[in-house]
UniProtKB/TrEMBL annotation:
Protein name per UniProt: C-type lectin domain-containing protein
Domain C-type lectin: 109-232
CDD domains: CLECT (cd00037)
InterPro entries: C-type_lectin-like (IPR001304), C-type_lectin-like/link_sf (IPR016186), C-type_lectin/snaclec_domain (IPR050111), CTDL_fold (IPR016187)
Amino acid sequence: MHVKFIDLCDVYFCIFSIHEEAFESLIFKTLPSDIPSTESPDYVFQHASSSMEECAVLCTKYSSCNSAYLHQSTCIGLSSLSPDSSHPATVGIYTKQTEACQGSKFLEYKDMCIMVSELALSWYEAKQYCEDVGGHLIVLDSEKKNNSTREFIKTYYKGSFNGFYVGASDLAIEGKWEWIIPSAANYFNFYGNQPNNVHIKNPTFPADCAAVHTDGTLFDDYCGQKQAFICEI
């Protein structure tokens, strides 16, 4: 088995792939710089290594290894996406992904391929942005997917934003909430008295677009409000 770097590096990311039949669908992607360090990373292994290529091969041998990096000639494998800030890597953090999740800022996390955007856009602009990068606003139409997304933003974006736009609205018919994907299940984890069709900052504006709190619950918001959002492929 060997690892070959692919000439797909730009200002956002670089990937390389494992070339062996058993690992044809695996790639290693540099972790986007806007993903912060975790407070308590989960270490899978530590092994002497002199190259990132060898380190990546080691990571493929552990199903629980989701990312790897070199630190002082030691390959460190993690089940989390990033190390803690007190243990910086001498090279970039590389995350183990499948070929289906190759977008520069998309990351595979518990069977999802998602991207949390730091841009503050209206719901309409966010929807278009996600489509322009080959995906769509995330659809949280199951308890499992909702919980995985909550875990992701709580771990890596805790305290960064109050909410993130998702792909649901009642723009077509007031009170009838729908996901932007027609085949999505009719599951909406709205918080308490939500949706109430009231925008907190501007009560006279209708709240027809959904956003998710860091606790995983949905609330309705004014579609023109500019805020962060989550895309998925």
